[in-house]
Structures are given as C-alpha cells and as structure tokens.
Design a protein that fits this description.
By secondary structure, the chain is of the alpha+beta class. Helix content is 28%, strand content 29%.
C-alpha cells in the first residue's frame, strides 16, 4: 500500500473554501447533484449563517491538494438543566483516489484534539456503520417515529388562522423553542442555523389574542409522507394543525419524529391511537463521544444536584470516580452538592470505555448501558448510577442537524 504524507490544517475560509466545497460536493452530490450540493455548501450549510467552526474543523492535504475534510459545527446542548458545548460532525469526506489509506482516521484524530483545545465537552455525529467507534464514539440515541392516522387527528371544529413561514432563524420562535425545550436532553440551544437549509421543510404558526406567536409546527413533506419534525405550543392545537395539513394534502397519516420523548406533545400522542417505530443501530447513526470528561462533568453539576436532591440518595456523602479509558475524574458529593476533582481513591467507581459517553447523556436505562458497555461498578456505584444517569431519551431536532 502506497503511503502518503498528509498535512492537516484548520481550513481557512478565504484560501480553502472553494476547493473544500468542491471535494464535499463530489462526495455527497448524488441526491441534489454536484452543483446543487455546491450551492448548498456555500449558501446554507457552511457559510451564510451556519455555526460551522473553522478553527476546530480539519482538512488534509497531499501535494498541496485537499483530499480530506472533517467538519465541526459547534453548539450548546442540553443535558437536563445543564448545558455542554458540543462539536457536531458533518461533511466527512475523502477524495475518491485516496480512500482506504487511513487518511480520514488521521484527520478525525486531529479534529478531535482541536475540539478539546477549543473547549468542547462532547461530540455528536450521525455516522456510517462500523467506523466511528474506532475513534471513541458510542451510540447516542435511537430514532423514534410516532405515526398517527389522519382520521385520528382532531378536526377543525373551531377554525383558526395559521400562517405559513420559512423556517429560518427568528428571535421570537427561537425564544419559544428554548423555553419549551429547556430541560430536554439532546436538544440544541438556539440559534443554530440562521437560514433554512432544508428546502422540503415548511413552518406553520398561529397567534394568541395579543398577536404574539402562540405556537408552530415544522413539517417535511414529500409525495408519500407528511412528517412533523418540530413543534411548540399547546399539544391539542399542534395536532389540530397537523390534521388540517394532512387533510389538505391528502395524506393518510402523519409521522412525528425528532420530538422529545418527555414533551407534552409526545405524551398526548402516546395516549391516543398511534404506532411507534424505534430504530437502533449498534455502530452508526446518532453517536456521541467524550471530548473532555472533566469539563463535561463540571458543567453537569447542576443537573447532578437536582437528580440527587429528588432521589432517595439526597443525603449521600462520598466520592465517585468515573473513567472512560482515556480520562478519569471524581465527583465529590455531599448533601446533594457536587464538585468535580482530580481522580481520588474511593471504593465507589464507574469504569468503562466509549459507552461512558452514552451514560452521561442518558442514552438508555443506566444499568442497560453499563451491561452493554461492560462497565465495572464498585462500591455503591450501582445505586448512584441509577440516580445520576437516568434514561433521558435524548434527541436533536432535524432543524439543527449537521
């Protein structure tokens, strides 16, 4: 196998953007075509109001030519009441003549180090099968879709006005979204994209008696499906609006996806006539990685305190060490107060590998994550893990995807 020297650098917008866009468009152009992908990259995805991070992303050169790209989109993500800085990964591309040579692995590792140097806590991506676990990523969440037949959605017995809008950034809608999603793990703190990068998505909103936006729903439609991907406001009104849209479009059912499990809308759907489809992937799809364990735990202290205070361990005192095979840190717990320290000697510990990231964001039931990740629990860790790391059903809205 021929070896190449790969020079890895952060991309410079002025010097590298056009060549970088050309590479990415060639790799990802089958759907929109080369020129369609090229336009999206420049107008919506990387430039023009995107949250693409030019400093943490990485490109690889061979003989002065860009042959790899590993993109980072930086945003704040909720874990309950806490907020962590996440590097969302996208547009991972290798030139067709240089594949299967380990060049993307080098580029990935360089970008992960750049994220750590830039004070990121976690990284999330939507990956191909059997690749990213090699770089420390583990399963982040399952994909859940609720399907409701149009006949089971409420009819407009008292018609009200809805207005169509383009789902680009608006301060009023971002404020409403942030309020209603304030504790839903996995969701992004808005704003993210300032423009609408999804041409098939459309928004519909309604107002209260004072003319203020009272709620909205974003839908993604094609000839076969009407998909509601995000909603705010009264759940009954949301279901009325989606029912109206489905009937107008002649759709037999509505598919609700990327809606937080704990939202009032999801609760209402589960209490009615619906079908739930859950998709799980072992090594691919939504995946999460710890970039900096100490900083992640430090930012989660508020949520840890809330969970402890509301549990049977509210008066527990002691130290709990966590390790993922790369880093270790200790939680010093006293009367629901939590501090993060350097690793300390303690009989209570959670030791694992990549799946510790899944535990932190509450991917599954905690003991299930412990078992699947072959983690080792010692002392009172089995009781603590249930309280500190419950199943959070994390999810990221399609609107914020990368």
């Amino acid at each position: 196998m021929k070896r190449f020297h790969l020079e890895i650098l952060p991309p410079d917008e002025d010097r590298h953007a056009e060549e970088m866009f050309d590479l990415i468009a060639k790799v990802f152009s089958p759907g929109p075509g080369y020129y369609g992908a090229l336009g999206t990259l420049g107008d919506k995805y990387i430039r023009n109001g995107s949250y693409y991070d030019w400093k943490a992303s990485r490109i690889g050169f061979i003989n002065g030519r860009i042959v790899t790209h590993f993109g980072v989109w930086g945003y704040r993500m909720r874990i309950g009441a806490s907020r962590v800085r996440v590097g969302g990964i996208g547009a991972v591309a290798t030139h067709g003549h240089y594949r299967r040579l380990g060049l993307m692995a080098e580029t990935t590792n360089a970008s992960i180090q750049a994220m750590r140097d830039s004070d990121y806590d976690l990284s999330i991506l939507f990956g191909i099968d059997n690749f990213y676990h090699k770089h420390g990523y583990a399963r982040a969440w399952c994909s859940t879709t609720y399907s409701v037949r149009t006949g089971n959605l409420p009819a407009d017995r008292s018609p009200f006005r809805i207005s169509q809008f383009v789902p680009k950034h608006r301060e009023d809608l971002a404020d409403l979204y942030n309020r209603e999603h304030a504790t839903f793990t996995g969701t992004a703190v808005r704003p993210t994209y300032l423009v609408n990068r999804w041409p098939t998505q459309t928004g519909y909103l309604w107002r209260d008696g004072k003319g203020m936006v009272a709620g909205y729903v974003l839908v993604d439609r094609n000839e076969e499906k009407l998909r509601a991907i995000e909603a705010c406001g009264d759940p009954g009104r949301i279901l009325q609006v989606t029912g109206r849209l489905a009937r107008r479009g002649g759709y037999r059912e509505v598919h609700f996806s990327t809606i937080p499990h704990g939202s009032e809308l999801c609760k209402r759907i589960r209490r009615g006539n619906s079908r739930m489809e859950v998709g799980n992937r072992l090594s691919g799809g939504p995946m999460v990685r710890i970039v900096n364990l100490v900083s992640t735990l430090t930012k989660m202290r508020r949520e840890f305190s809330i969970r402890l205070r509301n549990s049977h361990l509210s008066n527990w005192n002691g130290k709990l060490t966590l390790a993922d095979g790369r880093e270790e840190a200790t939680l010093a717990i006293e009367g629901s107060r939590v501090e993060v320290t350097a690793p300390q000697k303690t009989p209570h510990s959670i030791r694992g590998g990549n799946e510790l990231a899944s535990l932190l964001i509450g991917t599954d039931e905690p003991l299930e994550t412990v078992e699947s990740g072959r983690m080792r629990l010692s002392g009172e860790a089995k009781a603590l893990v249930r309280v500190l790391f419950p199943n959070e059903h994390p999810v990221l809205s399609s609107r914020d995807g990368f």
